[in-house]
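Sequence only, no structure available. Ideas?
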Amino acid sequence: MSETTNKNIQFTQVITPSGDTTSTSTNFAPKGARKLIKDSDVSTQPVMFTVDSSMEFRRKLEYTDKRYKRIKLMATGGYGRIFMVEDNVLGRKAVVKSLKEELLEHPDIVRKFLTEAKLNAQLDHPSIVTVFSLDTDSSDGLHMAMQLINGITLKEYLARTLEEHQKNNWSNTQTTRLLQERLEIFLHICDAIDYSHSKGIIHCDIKPDNVMIGRYGEVYVMDWGIAAADGCNRKANLDGTPSYMPPETLRDGVTNMQTDVFALGMMLNEVVTLRPPIQGDTPQEIAKKIYSGDYEPSTSILPGKKIPASLRAIIEKARHGEPDVRYKRVKELAEDIRHFHFDQEVKA
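Reply:
I predicted one. Tokens follow.
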């Protein structure tokens, strides 16, 4: 990937373009392991948000250049730079996110960077990127080494899918098969978010731009930089993407599991219909559409292609403006998707 500049990149993982992204995994199987594995069999400790941002702590960190050799700058943004590096010990490629030098004297920004590193490191799931280390340098810099992901964003994946549909005019059978593949991807995302919720963590910025797809079935939920504790109120500092925020969050800063459920519902509509997200010239215009329920319809953007009524019902329940009507938990949404796949009755 050539060096790029993107003002929207902060502490978000960077991607390396790849080829065909068709998934070969099967994620529709009923999650029997969840019933067989008891709470006592696994660690259920909540994620700790508290961090030590003191200079004393930072100077205890290892120097990044002892372990990693920079290969190239991959991206830069308002807060940091992202480098591809080589691990001097294991020989693997990795990514290092480095906080810009001029921001190291801003305590709030330093604390945010350290919080993201600590939070991400505590989330151990196949669809969440692994943090390798938190390091410093001779100038008291901050660097987070992470797994390098080869693939494309879900946003790009959906755009390519729509382009291929329009180019090839696929049959209904082919269209259905490709929809099933996209739903597999969506279920991987649901599983990752369900896991984070079990740790008391709300992602707060679920959207296709923040999901990576690999060519061998890998799916990763990225960018946990604004994740928050379940039940907190973010009205005073409401970060995120308005097109994926539920009315109660936009209005009152409410942040809970249904915050992510709504975002997943909005994403599910894009995955199923290949339509774009809610559009607007300003965040205020988008918020007005959210409040009024003026969403993109849950009908296919492809001429002559129909979306099954039960799948449309799942979409509408997941993105409903009233929390009492919406799915309460992500696993309920995922279960309905699996019921749809097996031609079973859905709860929506």
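Residues 152-341 form a domain with the Transferase(Phosphotransferase); domain 1 fold (CATH 1.10.510.10).
Hope that gets you unstuck.
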